[in-house]
Design goal:
With 407 residues, the chain is α/β, with parallel strands linked by helices. It is 23% helix and 28% strand.
């Protein structure tokens, strides 16, 4: 059998969403894990396999940097096999890479979660066949907290919140051991020692995002100087914009050098606000996230998550206090909502793929359909349903058989 790193695949009759244009019909040649060439419809090079995807639109694979679980699995409370369940669910929804996101927890449970993520990342790295059984690629970890504001806790468990003191080490945040693993964290810079913490995290190559915060402009400016360049689920878990207290929302809108992620589920942000943010921040300043919890994919009902009862009704989550407790959407749902608001396919691809990759500093390889980049692709049919998913040049999900010929 030919080494998969040498195998070639030709996607015929593809409608491609490229970074700067849409190609109505093209042939896309994949060589191993990479995009080799974007070809004219008449160019038909020999390939080990040929897949006709006429009628489908091909986007770069979606990247979810903030997701707590799905399909009944919570990333705070699972092992490697549970992460596999989430990854397989995500790949069927067009997500080709993700960051398991942890809510505040005990140090022992943090360590168990990190151990599970490490194990699963090693399993995926060793998976030479890429049959799809391991699903969407785990890129690292996102800690949502524990250094956040107790007055903007949302559904996070405040009993595990922490402050930071100069001279403290970062043992409370176990690191992944897998080479190249991404480490992201959401913090509120106004907590005791917050600015010192931002500085230390940045020095240790963490991606620092500001969220669950009531920080003043002064604290936010200090955090920016210390290296924080992103904001978590913008406008949620932070005070609303006020004419005499601009706060995190006003600050985030003012700074073009600060990016924001948003939950486009129609619950966390009104659709009109989504359109407003696209207008004010521009698509290059926004990344789509799901913020999905374990109930995603299971439908409405009552669930026990993070030690409390969470109700899902008509797609809205709520805990006993009535607070929204994450979402039950996928990034595919967010993509479809933004498209329904009139955002162009090129811009939506930036928000779901390119911008998350840039945030995670992996945009040299991920986030766009371009020669030399990873062949992580999702093909949507005319109704927006996922028909085909490719990771590293290998078909890992196909909704229905398509004509395939051996080259």
């Amino acid at each position: 059998m030919k080494d998969r790193h040498l195998q070639t695949t030709l996607l015929r009759n593809a409608r491609l969403i490229l970074p700067d244009r849409i190609v109505a019909k093209s042939n896309l040649l994949l060589h191993g894990a990479r995009v080799a060439q974007i070809l004219e419809p008449t160019q038909l090079p020999a390939a080990d396999s040929v897949i006709d995807i006429d009628g489908f639109t091909v986007f770069p694979g979606f990247i979810d940097v903030h997701i707590h679980g799905a399909a009944g699995v919570d990333t705070n409370d699972t092992g490697s096999d549970g992460l596999r369940t989430v990854s397989r669910f995500l790949v069927r929804n067009g997500v080709t890479a993700w960051l398991p996101t942890l809510v505040p927890d005990s140090e022992d449970n943090y360590l168990k979660s990190i151990t599970a993520i490490d194990e699963f990342m090693r399993r995926q790295a060793a998976d030479e066949n890429l049959t799809g059984s391991l699903g969407s690629r785990v890129l690292g970890v996102h800690y949502e907290g524990p250094f956040v504001n107790e007055h903007q806790c949302g559904a996070l468990r405040s009993q595990f919140f922490k402050t930071f003191a100069a001279g403290d080490e970062l043992q409370a945040l176990p690191r992944l051991q897998c080479p190249g693993a991404v480490h992201m964290i959401t913090i509120a810079p106004e907590v005791k020692g917050g600015i010192v913490l931002v500085r230390q995290l940045v020095q240790h190559d963490w991606i620092v995002s500001l969220g669950h915060t009531r920080a003043t402009i002064e604290f936010l400016d200090q955090a920016l100087t210390a290296g924080a360049r992103h904001m978590t689920h913008f406008m949620n878990a932070m005070p609303p914009l006020h004419q005499r207290a601009p706060g995190p929302v006003g600050w985030g809108l003012l700074h073009d050098d600060v990016t924001c992620d948003i939950i486009a589920d129609g619950q966390h942000l009104d659709p009109a606000v989504l359109s407003l943010l696209v207008k004010l921040k521009g698509v290059d300043g926004l990344a789509l996230i799901s913020d999905a919890i374990a109930a995603a994919g299971l439908g409405d009902g009552d669930y026990s998550i993070w030690g409390e009862a969470i109700d899902v009704k008509d797609g809205r989550t709520s805990n006993a206090q009535g607070s929204i407790a994450g979402s039950v959407i996928t990034l595919l749902d967010a993509v479809q909502r933004m498209l329904s608001l009139g955002v162009s396919e090129i811009d939506v691809a930036r928000m779901a793929s390119t911008n998350p990759a840039r945030l995670l500093r992996i945009d040299g390889d991920y986030g766009a359909i371009a020669e030399g980049k990873r062949a992580d692709l999702v093909a949507l049919d005319q109704t927006g349903k996922v028909g085909l998913v490719i990771i590293e040049g290998q078909v890992v999900f196909r909704l229905e058989p398509r004509p395939v010929a051996n080259g």
